[in-house]
Amino acid sequence: MSAGLVERARAWLDQDPDDETRAELRGLIEAVEDARPGAEAVLSDRFDSRLAFGTAGLRGELAAGPNRMNRVLVAQAARGLADWLIARRDEPSVVIGYDGRKNSRVFAEDTAELMAGAGVRAILLPRLLPTPVLAFAVRHFDASAGVMVTASHNPPRDNGYKVYLGDRDAGSQIISPVDAEIAESIDAVAAGSIVGLARSTDYEVADESVIDTYVSRTAQVASAQPSVQPTVVYTAMHGVGWETASRVFEAAGFASPVTVAAQVHPDPDFPTVSFPNPEEPGALDLAYETAREHAADLIIANDPDADRLAVAIPDPASGSGYRRLTGNEVGALLGWRAAESLAAPRDGAPEGTLACSIVSSPALAAVAEKYGLEFADTLTGFKWVSRAPGLIFGYEEALGYLVNPETVRDKDGISAAVAFLDLAAQLAADGSSVAEHLERFSETFGHFASDQISVRVSDVAQIGATMRRLREEPPRAVGGIAVERIEDLSGGFGALPPSDVLRLRLVDGSRVMVRPSGTEPKLKVYIDVSSTDGDLAHRVDEAEARLAALRAGVSELVGA
């Protein structure tokens, strides 16, 4: 077994152009040849499988071998994508962007050289930039495709490779069956060596005008010059958001936020956070500290590639003095803002669609109903949300928001920040606050409460076993509340494509959804309840009590 394994590893070593991963792999091979304990298992983990190319592209830990992110794997992906484009476009073109993670620029330049070498017009963005700028650039250059080198909010040692489509897809992320077609093309390249692949430095480097246009268009998300300027703290989470976001804020008329100095500049080591995701416990601690020092009215946080937005507001009941709003709360407020903007006097009824992923709160559907707008629920992921017909606003509970679909057809943490700053400034000018506006939402549409339970497993087979058990032995009640019906999305449901999701509708209107995580060895459960009875206090108490009962019932149901 080890002889064949070592042979495959040596073949990989022979084509690897990176000194660091070559040295690493050489050490692993020597360890196996010396029969060191555990060495063969380590090498097998690198070579017995490969990172799968799917609708999220590629993402994984930086290291040697086909089951890790490295220059060989990226070269295979770049040439595979180039071959796919050439087979389907008369004059194919691609825009390439990159963030501040380790090897991001190297991977981007490799991609540009291989695309140009294959005969694809390649345009490299001029420097490290947020993911939304790349998504915008695909449309700006009318390119056939886009590649963004980023691992978003993954751990520091990760990197990734996201692919976008141009033309009629307007800069949205790829969906099936395109992902499978590109994967097949990549596999064909991987069957040989990357050493013989044509490369060329005859690619274009975009000038600053593409960023200027993004800044100008995104600043227009603000409805008017703010008459009141809330005190705002901003963190880039060691990512690439600040330089672009600061320009957008200034162009929109907002005062420069107070920055979390230790996190404002790109740093691939992410030294102040163990997990650079604003949703993770502790990730916003420095932002809370800075906000307390400046008595801030609002905290705005982007994740490292600035496609997500987190918001926190003052909360005297919290130990930190601030509370991070959930993705559903931010989505509800921004959706309400979008609906209000269409409700201004005009000829005819308002038109447009509010959309969110199926695991996001039903609150947005309530907004759409009240304002006479269309509503679409989509599968999880912005590749689906962005494609909702007539979209005016879309979101998913994992801090992703799309507020200006005519500019960017992907989640954009910078434009969403502008929209939220605009809302906060208008509320302040009216003598109100975000906290009070959340209460008005509950009074207007009902109080919506959500929770999520994640069950991490050591063996991914456990996830499949749990999903089978729930299908074969469906629960009659959860948390003491009877199940009215179960919707199995595995064969598709309504307009939704097939997906490994179970949606439990309970007799009191509550909803429980169960699905495997698409990126981690986790089973995820989403719980949503709402109340429209009585005054605000009664609605909140009733919803929270039902949420607590369902949380306990779900934990028992899935073995959390």
UniProtKB/TrEMBL annotation:
Family: Belongs to the phosphohexose mutase family.
Start and end residues of each Alpha-D-phosphohexomutase C-terminal domain: 484-545
Gene Ontology terms: biological process: carbohydrate metabolic process; purine ribonucleoside salvage
Gene3D superfamilies associated with the record: Alpha-D-Glucose-1,6-Bisphosphate, subunit A, domain 3, Alpha-D-phosphohexomutase, C-terminal domain
Keyword Transport on entry: no
Keywords recorded for this protein, A-Z: Isomerase, Magnesium, Metal-binding, Phosphoprotein
Superkingdom of this protein's organism: Bacteria
Name of this protein: Phospho-sugar mutase
Signal peptide: none
Native source species: Labedella populi
Co-factor(s): Mg(2+)
Upper classification of the organism: Bacteria, Bacillati, Actinomycetota, Actinomycetes, Micrococcales
Pfam family name, one: PGM_PMM_IV
Boundaries of every Alpha-D-phosphohexomutase alpha/beta/alpha domain copy: 51-188, 213-312, 327-439
